[in-house]
């Protein structure tokens, strides 16, 4: 019967199914298994899943969170699984301080990565814990690869504190150094980088300097400084502020309860503005809660919460993307890593102008 239906029609039907149903469909016949397992189908299915969510007028976002509806602080103070980030259906988590696992909750695949290259015996270091590491996970479109970022704070012999950044790609599974910043993590919940526009973002500050947002472009691996909103937008930084994403724009909001009554600031066209939630009351987020079990890498089917609730940390979409790149016929071909002695740093000026200057890897 399946042979009577044209191949392209079967493919269009399969594109509309959820990953858990597609996994069962692989057992129907060899041709279906071939379609569902192909790299092009995985990409097309991911694109379709994003479009369905984006065009749904009743849906705000899909988010993944620990099963603590209104207390994100517990994510950082409890000794439990730590959500590093999410991208294209892949979820990066840290079950312990120096452990990293990338999993696809929809397909139940998971992959344990090599531990980050923390070497406390070689350099004067601050004690290693959740509050001295900044993490990040996202997709590099230029290399068609996923990257895990980790930054370790350490104290130099001069007494100043810097952050050393390392990156690992899923195709190589090798850590490499990408730079050192004369900034340190700041804010109560700044450890997990927020992915927006192909870059990761953290609250950070220099000694005796104001807090800024440090942005890392995942394709170029270059850092940028983003100034916070000014007093003209009624903004004054506090440790209760968080970074998030609203309508595909970087945003700043507060973790204070209840979140719906608090101001939000969004960056549009490289400029901060107050966010007006004039339509969000009719929308809801789908929040997938992560069970508090270190051995089972999965999330539940999700629950509805108000769109402007306190769930803007990690985006999520159901997909077939594998944490093992070769499983998607996407073999790593030995990309050559070139160590950059100099990086081009862009700092935002007082009028949101960008000036570029050549500097060393230290900023």
Descriptive keywords:
363 residues, mainly beta, seven-stranded mixed β-sheet, four-stranded antiparallel β-sheet, disordered C terminus
Q: Would you give an account of this structure?
A:
The protein has five helices and 22 strands. It is mainly beta and 363 residues long. Strands 10, 11, 12, 13, 14, 21 and 22 form a seven-stranded mixed sheet that branches. Strands 2-3-4-5 form a four-stranded antiparallel sheet, with no helix packed on it. The longest helix is centred in the first third of the chain and has 16 residues, at 39-54.
Instruction: Note the gap between the termini.
Output: 64 Å
Q: Would you count the extended β strands for me? A: 22
Mean pLDDT: 77
Number of helices: 5
General form: globular
Q: Roughly how much helix do the residues carry, as a percent range?
A: 10-25%
What ranges have pLDDT less than 50 throughout 5 or more consecutive residues? Answer: 69-79, 328-363
Q: Which percent range describes the beta-strand content?
A: 35-45%
Structural class: mainly beta
Largest sheet: 7 strands, mixed
As a whole number of angstroms, the C-alpha radius of gyration is: 21 Å
Return the string of H and E elements: HHHHEHEEEEEEEEEEEEEEEEEEEEE
The oligomerization state is: single chain
Please give the structural blueprint.
Layout lengths: L6 H9 L3 H7 L4 H8 L1 H16 L4 E7 L8 H4 L4 E6 L2 E5 L5 E5 L4 E5 L19 E8 L4 E11 L5 E9 L5 E7 L2 E2 L8 E3 L2 E7 L6 E6 L5 E4 L14 E6 L2 E6 L10 E4 L2 E4 L9 E6 L13 E4 L35 E7 L5 E7 L3
Parallel strand pairs: 1-19, 14-21
Antiparallel strand pairs: 2-3, 3-4, 4-5, 6-7, 7-8, 8-9, 10-12, 11-12, 12-13, 13-14, 15-16, 16-17, 17-18, 19-20, 21-22
């Amino acid at each position: 019967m399946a042979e009577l239906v044209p191949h392209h029609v079967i493919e269009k039907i399969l594109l509309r199914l959820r990953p858990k149903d597609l996994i069962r469909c692989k057992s129907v016949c060899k041709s279906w298994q071939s379609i569902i397992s192909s790299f092009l189908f995985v990409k097309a299915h991911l694109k379709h899943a994003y479009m369905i969510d984006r065009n749904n007028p009743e849906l705000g976002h899909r988010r993944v969170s620990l099963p603590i509806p209104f207390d994100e602080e517990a994510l950082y103070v409890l000794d439990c699984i730590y959500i590093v980030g999410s991208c294209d259906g892949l979820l990066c988590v840290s079950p312990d301080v120096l452990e990293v696992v990338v999993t696809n909750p929809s397909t139940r695949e998971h992959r344990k990565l090599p531990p980050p290259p923390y070497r406390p015996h070689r350099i004067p270091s601050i004690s290693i814990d959740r509050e001295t590491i900044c993490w990040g996970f996202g997709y590099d479109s230029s290399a068609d690869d996923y990257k895990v970022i980790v930054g370790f704070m350490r104290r130099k012999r001069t007494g100043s504190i810097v952050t050393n950044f390392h990156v690992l790609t899923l195709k190589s599974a090798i850590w490499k150094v990408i730079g050192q910043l004369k900034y340190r993590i700041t804010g109560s919940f700044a450890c997990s980088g927020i992915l927006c526009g192909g870059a990761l973002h953290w609250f950070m500050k220099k000694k005796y300097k104001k807090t800024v947002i440090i942005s890392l472009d995942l394709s170029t691996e270059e850092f940028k400084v983003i100034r916070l909103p000014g007093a003209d937008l009624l903004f004054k930084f506090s440790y209760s502020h968080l970074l998030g994403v609203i309508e595909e724009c970087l945003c700043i909001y507060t973790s204070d309860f209840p979140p719906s009554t608090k101001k939000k600031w969004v960056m549009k066209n490289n400029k901060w503005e107050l966010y007006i939630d004039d339509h969000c009351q009719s929308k809801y987020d789908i929040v997938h809660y992560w069970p508090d079990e270190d051995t089972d890498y999965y999330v539940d089917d999700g629950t509805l919460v108000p769109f402007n609730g306190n769930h803007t940390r990690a985006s999520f979409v159901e997909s077939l993307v594998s944490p093992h790149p070769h499983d998607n016929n996407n073999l790593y071909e030995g990309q050559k890593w070139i160590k950059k002695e100099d990086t081009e740093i862009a700092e935002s000026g007082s009028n949101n102008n960008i000036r570029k200057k050549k500097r060393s890897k230290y900023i």
